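Entry under discussion copied across for reference:
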Amino acid sequence: MQPLGKRTKKFALDVFRFCEALPNRSSCRIVKRQLMRSASSVGANYRAAQRAQSRKAFVAKLAIVEEEADESLFWLEMLEELAVGNPQVLQRLKGEADELVAIIVTSKKTAKE
């Protein structure tokens, strides 16, 4: 398994590549912009969490990572409902977003102890 920092960065890059292949209709433009923002925020905020000055700041950043990963999952589900994009890639990205949420939830609980 990859270190989480690399994994969150790869998730963002994979989402970007997936979004580049989406059709250019208005619904897709809106969703892919939001998805790219939330997916890149997962990696950026996880990286920021690694530099947190306190446990409280670390947990706060992880909370943002959790929210952004869950938001990414929401936008991926929207694309699934719109029936656009490569279904196999979409399922893989949904699975990765779901796993990232689960990992971050566990990390937050551990950090709070």
Residues 55-82 form the longest helix (28 residues). DSSP finds four helices and no strands in the chain.
